[in-house]
Amino acid sequence: MTPVELSRTVLRAVRRAVDEGELSVTVPGRAVVTVPGAGGCGDYATNIALQLARPAGQPPLRVAEILRSRLAGADGVTDVVVTGPGFLNISLRSESSADLVGEILRRGRRYGYADGPTGQIVQLHAPHELRAVVVMGVVARLLRSQGALVRTSCEARPEPAWTDVLGADVDAYGTPGAPAPLDVNVRPVPAPPDDPDPTRLGRDATRWALLHPAAHDRPRLSDDHLVQRESNPLFRVRYAHARTRALSRNAADLHFDAEPGDVSDGLVTPLADHPRVLARAAAHRSPDLLARHLVTVADAVLPLLPTVLPRGEEKPSAAHRARLALAEAAGTVLAGGLSLLGIDAPRHL
To answer: Where would one find coiled-coil regions in this protein (predicted)?
Structure first.
């Protein structure tokens, strides 16, 4: 269940409570669903009870309990816990690996995206600094993936190399004066200020070097990001993606296709977590969460790869088809995540 689908489930619970006379409110147009905050639990949380308490003329905890009883029986929901002043924390039923893989392959690179606009409008404004502009661009992509309408601006025109080499574009630049100056709201620790050519690593490695560290960590624009070794997380992510695509080509040569099936593998969990990671990365404006998640997916898929194709005289079986589908799903998640980071996902490496 995606955040958008869960939001609709929450609204149906509100509508039922209204229809049954337990709440006297106007059903809102949407319910905000986010990752649980401090003290929360489960997969997602919503503050809908706090939002409806005043118009309903009831305490938030009472509204939360009314909604909890209706949400607890909804399809796909396994548990609902009320925390704090009235937050609803919702746990979801785990999908079978076949259903999960089928959903990923069906939605492609848009797996984890919102189904449509949410009505959220966000203005992002960054200082005239390389890392800030790159991070802001990815934050904008993440927010758009979750249905927000986003506009980006910078205090001054980005340097030509930032745009030409790194693809770091903004919608507008300059700082408007009174009465409505924009607040700088994207301000990661800057790239090394004494670097004579911060774009020398090329688009992909430079963007990774700026995006993989957390915002409060200083990035390192070193040649380590170019080495083709397991010690380089960017290499592992791109290599894992290229290997999944090679498996699909090899399977075609052996005349068998992927077919989702139930597979017990550690890769299933990070693939199922992908929508939540996108939602968290957008909500916290932290592209590093997505970058580190892609490393987790890559490290989980690499041990699976040797088991996908038949060996020797072995004939392709349902297990081979299911493992191939799982590997292709991982490749899809890696490609989609790299695309959001503005990094190429090569099919050959």
So the answer is: none
Interhelix angle 287-301/130-145, nearest 10 degrees: 70
Main-chain dihedrals φ then ψ at residue 172, nearest 5 degrees? -155, 160
Of 330, 118, 125, the closest CA to residue 242 belongs to 330
List the domain boundaries for the chain.
Answer: 3-92, 96-110+117-349
From 3.50.50.60, 1.10.357.10, 3.30.160.20, 3.30.1360.70, which CATH number describes the 3-92 domain?
3.30.1360.70
Joined tokens for residue 163? 């745009």
Cα–Cα nearest to 88, from 74, 68, 73:
68
Supply the pTM of this predicted model.
0.78
Class of domain 96-110+117-349: mainly alpha
State the first-to-last Cα distance of the chain, in angstroms, to the nearest integer: 34
Return the half-sphere exposure (C-beta side, CA atoms, 13 A cut-off) of residue 1: 20
